[in-house]
Amino acid sequence: MEKVFTSPSRYVQGKDVLLKAGEYVKKIGDNALVLADDFVWDLAGNTVLDNLENAGVKSTKVVFGGEASTEEIQRIAGEGKDSNVVIGIGGGKTLDTAKAVADELQVGVVIMPTTASTDAPTSGLSVIYSAEGTFESYKFYDKNPDLVLVDTKIIAQAPPRFLASGIADAMATWVEARASIEGRGTTMAGGQATLAGQAIAQKAEEVLFEYGLLAYESNKRKIVTPALDAVIEANTLLSGLGFESGGLAGAHAIHNGFTALHGDIHSLTHGEKVAFGTLVQLALEDRTLDEINTYVDFYLALGLPVTLEDIKLKDVSDEDLQKVAEQAVQEGESIHNMPGVVTADQVVDAIKAADAYSKAYKETIGFED
């Protein structure tokens, strides 16, 4: 199988770069469909519209309904038939929807994240959910975004929980890429991992361990520091390139498995669920307790969930855990990139083991929730 590396055409990160949106966008198209939810319109969307107008770019404003579903994609595409570029402003589901709409219309796409909470911005794929929020599939595109604009000043104003969530998502990058490489798995880019994809995935984790806590404190104070700037890049660019060209494995499959359940777990962010999924994968791989504790300790410092109770599943039944596991190991899921054959029963056991490991670590250090 060939090795494949893929990336956006251009990535721009810095303070106040959204004030240059028109300057960048007009190189791609002059009639934009601009997508954001109600909150993000007030936060940044209307500023972008003004900037586009000043640059001579026409725009159509569309309010995102909240779910990256086929129905929502079709609805929005219907409003942008005359557009020659789609702009997504906001979080992961908004951005995934913008990419899908651009693909539907066969036009360029510009991604403007307002948080560093996921690694969705740079990728050439979308995660598609049902209208009720259940994971359905990955949707792949012929190319990655034409432009990713990351305004660090905007991101610094976001709640620190979102940055921590992005760190959790990005922390899975090397854990999953390593397993996928060992299993000779197929990456989201459509081949095996390149040396570049592997190196970028490793660098993401290195940056996060070095600067993650400093960046988190900077975000609490809403200031852009070198540490926050580095972590924003790790969460967005390094993790995005690393997962797509390095490989996904168990952590994200476990996350997808949780969509089979209903209830309070869905009050958690994508990254928060991926954090626990990462611990489950480490248990599946039979990693040492010392290695697992390194991740648990880091997650606890960032207020991330590490036990079933933390992800609102304190009293989860074996039947429900089996549903999660069956979803996680369904055909086509990334968990099959791992070495060997992973079964639903193994996933259930690993979930219980991850929970037990984390509880034991909390007791050892005297951690209080």
UniProtKB/TrEMBL annotation:
<dbReference type="InterPro" id="IPR001670">
    <property type="entry name" value="ADH_Fe/GldA"/>
</dbReference>
<feature type="domain" description="Alcohol dehydrogenase iron-type/glycerol dehydrogenase GldA">
    <location>
        <begin position="8"/>
        <end position="152"/>
    </location>
</feature>
<dbReference type="InterPro" id="IPR016205">
    <property type="entry name" value="Glycerol_DH"/>
</dbReference>
<feature type="binding site">
    <location>
        <position position="119"/>
    </location>
    <ligand>
        <name>glycerol</name>
    </ligand>
</feature>
<feature type="binding site">
    <location>
        <position position="123"/>
    </location>
    <ligand>
        <name>NAD(+)</name>
    </ligand>
</feature>
<keyword id="KW-0479">Metal-binding</keyword>
<feature type="binding site">
    <location>
        <begin position="92"/>
        <end position="96"/>
    </location>
    <ligand>
        <name>NAD(+)</name>
    </ligand>
</feature>
<dbReference type="InterPro" id="IPR018211">
    <property type="entry name" value="ADH_Fe_CS"/>
</dbReference>
<keyword id="KW-0560">Oxidoreductase</keyword>
<feature type="binding site">
    <location>
        <position position="270"/>
    </location>
    <ligand>
        <name>glycerol</name>
    </ligand>
</feature>
<feature type="binding site">
    <location>
        <position position="37"/>
    </location>
    <ligand>
        <name>NAD(+)</name>
    </ligand>
</feature>
<feature type="binding site">
    <location>
        <position position="252"/>
    </location>
    <ligand>
        <name>glycerol</name>
    </ligand>
</feature>
<feature type="binding site">
    <location>
        <position position="125"/>
    </location>
    <ligand>
        <name>NAD(+)</name>
    </ligand>
</feature>
<comment type="pathway">
    <text>Polyol metabolism; glycerol fermentation; glycerone phosphate from glycerol (oxidative route): step 1/2.</text>
</comment>
<dbReference type="GO" id="GO:0046872">
    <property type="term" value="F:metal ion binding"/>
</dbReference>
<keyword id="KW-0520">NAD</keyword>
<dbReference type="GO" id="GO:0008888">
    <property type="term" value="F:glycerol dehydrogenase (NAD+) activity"/>
</dbReference>
<keyword id="KW-0862">Zinc</keyword>
<comment type="similarity">
    <text>Belongs to the iron-containing alcohol dehydrogenase family.</text>
</comment>
<feature type="binding site">
    <location>
        <position position="169"/>
    </location>
    <ligand>
        <name>glycerol</name>
    </ligand>
</feature>
<dbReference type="Pfam" id="PF00465">
    <property type="entry name" value="Fe-ADH"/>
</dbReference>
<feature type="binding site">
    <location>
        <begin position="114"/>
        <end position="117"/>
    </location>
    <ligand>
        <name>NAD(+)</name>
    </ligand>
</feature>
<feature type="binding site">
    <location>
        <position position="129"/>
    </location>
    <ligand>
        <name>NAD(+)</name>
    </ligand>
</feature>
<protein>
    <recommendedName>
        <fullName>Glycerol dehydrogenase</fullName>
        <ecNumber>1.1.1.6</ecNumber>
    </recommendedName>
</protein>
